[in-house]
Amino acid sequence: MGRRLGLLKRWALALRSEVIAVFFAARDPAAPLLPRLLALFIAAYALSPIDLIPDFIPVLGLLDELILLPLGLWLVLRWMPAAVMQRARARAAALLEKPRSWLAAAAIVLLWLLLLAALLAWLGLWPWR
């Protein structure tokens, strides 16, 4: 079971890296138009919280992540020129190597919560008076 979990983690990290690389490839001016548009759609869909098929629908809700997303990535990787993908993968690897600051992430979340509280107070919807 532990070996399978490790394999799934490596696959998820590789998929994440490829999605970021596809995003960078979509922004490369040397990429042809059709693969660029497909790459942009796939990257936006993969990074978006909105799904084509909602996840709460049993079995069908996971089909987009298990079938549609890998199929779209495969098409992009097949149609995109190798030089463009090589540059995009290098940019994705450089981005993923940067350190992450949990303190900065917490500060941003706190800022959004304060803005939400201010909006609720301004609208008169604040629950505690």
UniProtKB/TrEMBL annotation:
<dbReference type="InterPro" id="IPR010652">
    <property type="entry name" value="DUF1232"/>
</dbReference>
<keyword id="KW-0812">Transmembrane</keyword>
<keyword id="KW-1133">Transmembrane helix</keyword>
<keyword id="KW-0472">Membrane</keyword>
<dbReference type="Pfam" id="PF06803">
    <property type="entry name" value="DUF1232"/>
</dbReference>
<feature type="transmembrane region" description="Helical">
    <location>
        <begin position="33"/>
        <end position="50"/>
    </location>
</feature>
<feature type="domain" description="DUF1232">
    <location>
        <begin position="36"/>
        <end position="71"/>
    </location>
</feature>
<feature type="transmembrane region" description="Helical">
    <location>
        <begin position="101"/>
        <end position="125"/>
    </location>
</feature>
<feature type="transmembrane region" description="Helical">
    <location>
        <begin position="56"/>
        <end position="80"/>
    </location>
</feature>
<protein>
    <submittedName>
        <fullName>DUF1232 domain-containing protein</fullName>
    </submittedName>
</protein>
